[in-house]
Amino acid sequence: MFSSFTRSTVSKLVNGSGASALINARTYYRMPSVPYAQKGLKPFLSERSISFHLEHHKTDIEKANNLVDQTPYRDLPITQVLRQAGGDSEEAPFFNLASSHFNQSFFWKSITDRITEPSVFMLKAFRMDFGSFEEFKAKFSRNASSMSMPGYTWLVFRDKSLSIINTFGSGSPYELEGAFPLLCLDLHERAYYLDYQTNKKKYIANFWNFVDWEFVENKFLNALVQDKDHKQSIEQALVEEYEREMYAFDRDQQSEKDAYIENAKKQTEQALANKDDIDFDDDLEQQLDKEELDGRFAVEEETSEDLYSEDDFQIKK
Fold this sequence. Notes:
Elements lengths: L3 H12 L1 H10 L20 H22 L9 H8 L6 H19 L9 H11 L2 H13 L5 E8 L2 E8 L11 E7 L2 H8 L3 H8 L5 H12 L3 H80 L2 H4 L4
Antiparallel strand pairs: 1-2, 1-3
């Protein structure tokens, strides 16, 4: 038989109140997993800097959890909270804390101690919207460097394209209608001051060596679930780019083959021309040898006449 406690619990679950309580418990905010916290992400972030930042994050979570029960947003996922509460002035204190928690969590997930690289699909998306992957990084870095107050720099997907935005203070990218965040860089001093002091540019430069591109692409693909046409356009662009590259490769191969044949012909013609020159040189050499030989004999004959003239043997009186 069930105990009175068990019967009560089962009754609540069957009637829905217990299930609601369990769901509500899951919507409380908590610290995300930060697997690199103990050893740091050197030379980007030291363990001391990460620990200091996590303490600030923990405080924001505790304050948000203390306020969430007093708001109409307790049963909502945090992304919906940020979309709906951004314009609610009465809930501004709670929104700021919830947004700060989300932003910092997104930053922790945007970096990793593993070596990752953008996929071919992701690189194509960068080329389509920024011209190149390097130009995207340069523009993102410029946006981050231009921040004159604490905030975040984001890569977002919106209106069928990738774009870069800055949010200030605890501002959320979800306040921008239709925006899906993909990558985040925290530009509050708590994130970098212990390691960089005021050298924010170096902090931004080191960031690129620790971006988790697998996380970025997963977020991008999730965003594209609601925009399958754009996903197909990127895939089609990749196919067309591949075909152009293969055509160019075949064309280059044919050009190399034609150039090789043409060069071989020229070498053959040059060799034949050199053969004529060699024959001429041989004839000339033989002619010079003959002239030199004839000249030597002529000198010898002339010399012999001088040496053996009658005057030389004449006895002078």
